Amino acid sequence: xxxxxxxxxxxxxxxxATTEATTTAPPIAASASSSxxxxxxxxxxxxxxGADAGVPGRLRVVSFNIERGHRADxxxxxxxxxxxxxxxxxxxxxxxxRTGFRDVASAVARRLAWPTCAFCCEFRELHPxxxxxxxxxxxxxxxxxxxxxxxxxxxxxFDWTSRGAVLGQPRRGARSAVWADLRLPQxxxxxxxxxxxxxxxxxxxxxxxxxxxxxxxxxSQFSEVxxxxxxxxxxxxxxxxxxxxxxxxxxMHGVIRFLPIVYPSTDxxxxxxxxxxxxxxxxxxxxxxxxxxxxxxxxxxxxxxALLRELxxxxxxxxxxxxxxxxxxxxxxxxxxxxxxxxxxxxxxxxDVTSWKVGGEGLSDHLAIYVDYAW
Length: 375
Fold this sequence. Notes:
The chain has about 375 residues and is of the alpha+beta class. Helices cover about 20% and strands about 30% of the residues. Strands 1, 3, 4, 5, 6, 8, 15 and 16 form an eight-stranded mixed β-sheet that branches. Strands 2-7-9-10-11-14 form a six-stranded mixed β-sheet, with helices on one face. A hairpin with an 8-residue loop joins strand 5 and strand 6. The protein is globular and about 50 Å long.
């Protein structure tokens, strides 16, 4: 049995890309609320990995909700064609009937010829035929893995354990995040590795925020990620470059505002923000202002979650930006094309953005996003 199948929400599995979904690989797991690993572990990577060395002078990071991994091999091949350096994946299955009981994280890593992957369990899938395994988020990279960890969010606005079966998704667990510190080599002017051993640490997060809640519920979970990153090294990223990517589920737009399963009846924000999408609201109230999250606190008023107030006080959010257009760079389409939204984000701090793109058509119900940073 694959050892990731023993995980609970917030726990971490790190290991080499397995050859079969049922192959046992060494787990690194602690309590369900937080797990971590370091390069001293036998599962952590010390080599550069990958079938090629990437593109000198460029760091390419992809975020992709892969819809369980139904097309895992095709997704891996597409990522390989991008010559990306880091892949932040959401909705990753391990050992579930709906995806052929495969270890999807390892399957994608094998197509990339990358030696290791870090997987964080969010849910144990309990459906008698489609489930049987676990489901969560992953970080894959060609860069050497220095340390990694995971945690379940303290805020869970939708109780999947008690309500998931009503939606046809019986499961047990909680929304969680996985992070990793990767070694960026020092470069010379021509983009080659100096070989001196000098290094810069890149912190990355792969997250999947709750969809069955309103803006306040998602911002509570997002604030927890940002506050984790704001901690001094090695727990947080300190002043090191950082990328936070994932499916933020910023879906409050159009007809979605009127679906009671998505928004609590008490969520007045779904109507007070008519005229702009949720992604535009996030940009205006968190990232598009030197005030950082302070503007969001004022906008939410009494419904503002405590974690967001703490984030606003820290000023940390003002360091981050996402280069995509919040209206036109949509990553999800629904209701027969009548609704679309930007759900997926790549926020960065301490890195110079050179280009960005949406892609991966036909591989998932989401589109992927990827950003190039100068390095």
